[in-house]
Design a protein that fits this description.
Elements lengths: L4 H11 L3 H10 L4 H10 L2 H7 L6 E8 L5 E9 L2 H4 L2 H17 L11 H17 L4 H19 L5 E2 L2 E5 H12 L4 E9 L2 H10 L1
Antiparallel strand pairs: 1-2, 2-5, 3-4
Helix pairs in contact: 1-2, 2-3, 4-9, 6-9, 7-8
């Protein structure tokens, strides 16, 4: 069923959970707000939301080399305490996030980290493509919105489909770890290296 923005906001105000989590919860329970609250509790999302604002000054900077030694990743994942950073749950999460970056090649942790210049360039391309198809302006804007949503899902680590369970987003597995460990967890940054990418970039710039 279609869930109104007003209902999503009401659930968000009530729980503090993210907009996408609220919308998904409402869709799962046919728009019943109280049932959606229970859904969020069952999934551990409320517990994660309550911890989201807490400082994360500990954690790990970890490395991952993909088999074949042609792709490498450095990633910083933070938590609240040094004790949590040494747990098996946290280590497993960091490893899985490293593998996600290696496999899916995101350009940023979250959409807020992508520069306005990149976003506007993408919008310009999508708008031109839509106009070329002869669609009316109102339809064009909706097409651009859809294309940008897909762009963020493909290029933002938190919004990517999780490689080990495509029905979940990367953000979902982090929230599950937060609920499991009882601490706030966040990805600060990452860098991905691929053998030969600088040579390819230099060749393109010379053409």
């Amino acid at each position: 069923m279609e869930i109104s923005a007003k209902t999503v906001k009401e659930l968000r105000d009530k729980t503090g959970a993210g907009m996408m989590d609220c919308k998904k919860a409402l869709q799962e329970v046919d728009g019943d707000i109280e049932a959606a609250v229970d859904y969020l509790r069952e999934k551990g999302i409320l517990k994660a939301a309550k911890k989201a604002g807490r400082a994360t000054r500990e954690g790990q900077v970890a490395s991952y080399i993909h088999p074949g030694s042609k792709i490498g990743v450095l990633i910083e994942v933070n938590c609240e305490t040094d004790f949590a950073a040494r747990t098996e749950t946290f280590n497993e999460l960091v490893k899985n996030l490293s593998m996600q970056v290696a496999a899916s090649n995101p350009i940023a942790v979250a959409r807020e980290d992508i520069t306005d210049e990149v976003i506007e360039r993408e919008k310009k391309v999508y708008r031109a493509q839509a106009l070329e198809s002869g669609k009316p302006e109102k339809v064009v804007e909706k097409m651009v919105e859809g294309k940008m949503r897909k762009f963020f899902e493909e290029n933002c680590l938190l919004e990517q489909s999780y490689i080990r369970d495509p029905d979940k987003k990367v953000e979902d597995i982090i929230k599950e770890a937060i609920a499991d460990m009882g601490e706030n967890i966040g990805v600060s940054r990452f860098v991905r290296y691929q053998l030969g990418e600088n040579v390819a970039a230099e060749s393109e710039s010379e053409e």
